[in-house]
Amino acid sequence: MLDRKDLLGLEGVGREEILEILDTAKGFVDIPQRTVKKVPALRGFTVVNAFYESSTRTRTSFEIAAKRLSADTINFAASSSSVSKGETLLDTAKNLMAMAPDCIILRHQLSGAAHFLSTQVTCHVVNAGDGTHEHPTQGLLDAFTIREKKGAFEGLKVTIVGDILHSRVARSNIHGLSTLGANVTLCAPPTLIPVAVERLGVRVEHSLDRAVAGADVVMALRVQKERMEGGYFPSPQEYFELYGLTNARMKGADRECIVMHPGPMNRGLEIASEVADGPRSVILEQVSNGVAVRMAVLYLLVVGRKTRETAD
């Protein structure tokens, strides 16, 4: 069981902890194929989905994960709550805690929001994406998908291309995949590469052809237009020409290379439909695996904590 109260990021999470989550998720993968798509692991527990940003895959995935574990779920959207009337995150947290939840899943537009929440509540907190900081369960489901396809991480060449600067997905994957032994290369225009990111042990390339050469995994990231206030690249057409994943670009990758994308996709900007829907793509498998991985996180955090408290 995870020896931690919260999952706020993959930075500092050890290899054995990550593998425990992936191994636990493996046991949940076949549940959707059962006649009854539920297990009683979290029966009697309450999970709150608190989303301050729009989300399709992550919010729905967490909700399905909690329900398949038989937890009671509450969906909290900022746009239809007292947040729209000016209520602060702290006041919202206090009011949620008054209802005695066992876990709060938080997505927030501000980096550090999940960490702040974790210091204010006694229940578990899972970061579902905070600003441009981290998105740990996305990093875990990506790792799970890679292991399912490649078997191991040591020595794998993983290329992440796109809007690295604004991507919490990239940060979680850098921490998680590097910890597991993969060699990570980042590729983007200089304007979309964080300053001194090489200190995290990654390689930086500005040529997509060089970045993709020999890659075992290529992950395209969404261009986050909503977080861009300046001109980070001249035009969408030029960006696609230089950094868009196409079949022609992918010819330089390993023959067994897989293509990933955390979604939502801007087709024709960061990835061509021929690649997104092609035989190398595992994008929909990422979505399916996300439910199993989030089930594993909820199970290990909540049940693990209760087990330790009982033992004490």
Q: Can you walk through the features of this model?
A:
The chain starts with 14 loop residues before the first helix and ends with a helix. α1 packs across α5 and α2 crosses α11 (283-311). The relative contact order is 0.16. A five-stranded parallel β-sheet has the order 7-6-5-8-9. A four-stranded parallel β-sheet has the order 2-1-3-4, with helices on both faces. The longest helix has 29 residues, at 283-311. The chain has helices spanning 15-26, 57-68, 89-97, 113-120, 136-150, 168-179, 208-212, 236-243, 247-250, 273-276, 283-311, and strands spanning 46-51, 72-77, 103-108, 124-130, 157-161, 183-187, 203-205, 217-220, 258-260. Helix content is 38%, strand content 14%. β5, α6 and β6 form a beta-alpha-beta unit.
